[in-house]
Design goal:
Helices cover about 15% and strands about 25% of the residues. By secondary structure, the chain is an alpha+beta fold. The protein folds into three domains: about 15-140, Bacterial OB-fold (OB fold (Dihydrolipoamide Acetyltransferase, E2P), Beta Barrel); about 145-275, no CATH class; about 305-650 and about 695-720, Endonuclease/exonuclease/phosphatase (Deoxyribonuclease I, Chain A, 4-Layer Sandwich). It is elongated. Keywords: Signal.
Amino acid sequence: MKPLARCLATGLRLAWPALLLSAATLPAVAQSAACASPFTAAPAIQGRGAATALAGATVTVQGIVVGDFEGPSPALRGFYLQDEQGDGDAATSDAIFVFNADRDEVSVGQRVRVTGTVSEFQGQTQLSAQAGTLVACGSGTVAPTDLRLPFASADEAERLEGMLVRLPQTLQVTEHYQLARFGQVLLSSAGRQIQPTQTHPPGAAAQALLQAQQLDRLILDDARNAQNDDPILFARGGLPLSATNTLRGGDSVSGVVGVMTWTWAGASASGNAWRVRPIGALGGSLPAFQPTNPRPTHAPPSQGTLRVASFNVLNFFDNVAGCTGGVGGTSMACRGAGSDVSGAAAQAAQFAIEYPRQRAKTVAAIGRMNADVVGLIEIENDGHGLGSALRALVDALDAASAPGTWAALDVDARLGTPNRLGSDAIKVALIYRPARVKPVGRTAVLDSAEFVRGGDASERNRPALAQAFEQTDGARFVVAVSHLKSKGSACDTPDAGDGQGECAQVRRRAAVALRQWLATDPTATGEADLLVIGDLNAYAREEAVTAFTASGWTDLIARDEGAQASSHAFDGRWGYLDHALASASMAAQVVRAQHWAINADEPAALDYNINFKSAGLQASLYAADEFRSSDHDPVLIDLRLRRSRQPPVAGPTAPRASGPSPRRASAVRSHGPAPHRSPSGSAAPAWRATPPPRPPSPARAGGRSAGWRPPAQPRPQDRPTPSAA
């Protein structure tokens, strides 16, 4: 046995000591005559309905122990007893849960009889054993019953309650959100389940798909019932989860044997649900998940001459105290590293550990994208200069490559007014490689009431940012970065129940306003080559997206990756919220658009956070690489731009949007004092000089651009000592 496997086996013996008990340890009240006495069979107790008809009755039952989960809380404090013969009725369960308080008296494979009171507890039929009534009657076995997904109906699983089952199909992981906390994953028979409005228009068809999906999911539980346990058992190859041994969405498992239970996972937050528990079951074992969905070894090689990326950086803040909505704005709670504990001292201590970890992952992801222009979403809204999160990120990127490799678009300096990107805690931003492109024309911000409110009385969407860029041969394009209102909280118009979630109309109105604004040439470059990127918080068939595609724009991800592409997972369903939309002329110059699957497929436990992790898990689950650097996958868009034969014709100055701005009279301002100019005449950020252009670096093997290197790791004596949360 390998050392790691030996340690794991030892851990299982400690966790389930009942597995090592022999019949000799049972109470001495057992008599051979008692084992031959009449008893009430488990199927008779269960009956055909959802609840037993014998509630309150005292009965004696006999059968084979098919699942042993005894011991004090958080264990289930009992065992599952299955009738050896069964009643031959497929509509009734042949097993029952025996609640045995804190006693530890049985092991799997034993034949026992016990007397107790019948009841329903949180939807599961059980027998509460009377102390001293358990009798050992030898040993035996039962064959597992095959359980196939999808269920024929919502109540079909009831007939298998408490029974030993086998999952003969190859099932795929469609959710692992609760893997670290509760030791559970959600399985499906048809691969990762797709978000209904990813492939269906909002309405009846989407809702019908949602209901069908509910019948094709089943939880696989590690049976320990303790929260945030160490190690995390479910991962590839039957080995614990680690930074190098992941469990990705779409990975598969087959031939699982376990007990079918209607239980929670040790806390009310996990909820009662149908769970198969293979560990502690008769004939069960630790599942060996297969790497059906391989990790990408590098970013997809660029297929064009210029790459644009969109990346939600998951609340990248470079501080955990004194956060405001814009420079000098309203005080707001900080987000990101260190923010999910209480108390200033605790937050500061956690930030000191988490922020370098988050920064290293973010830098690794951006550095390995090989992108020339990157739209950022969810970066702290604290300006653009020294002390800002945006400046900190650019400096870290330069430190990992070379000084001057990256620059940030200083929106406030270019427009001559502060806080043009809103008063929320987070904003959108643009960074770029000055050796490859330069910003031209006017920097434009859409912050009209029509856009940011989307028809509501309050601000919902963050201002959008548009900028024209010119590559070294003079070819140009315009990119707009947007972050629309999420589905997670209500707006003035209630959720219509059509599958789009909350605030669908706010997002739709904002999308229409953004499309119409871009048609007015807000960058004053006359460019018709328009690219919209960002987190629109809408799946492919929702109205915020069709507001573009119904007007001649192309959904590049749908075109190049297909309808079932994904960049995000929620509630065990997959789709893409992170978009690349192109005007007609732009679409013809996009060679390929795709997501780089480094985040959504990976368990959240592999991110930078240290809370709820033991010191061992803080070390084993973390690597300073791109994986789980965010909860969204980045979008990579490869362009091959055509240079215009004639210089671009200057378009009209972007008009002010109708209606007053929620913050200022000028709803849309796309100009300001002349920005700082580099020697080449291109606009450059006010806080750093733009170096002269240089040829692009050739790509190295593994997807890293030449000159890129991973962030330097602290010397051992400088590393903070992780502590258990």
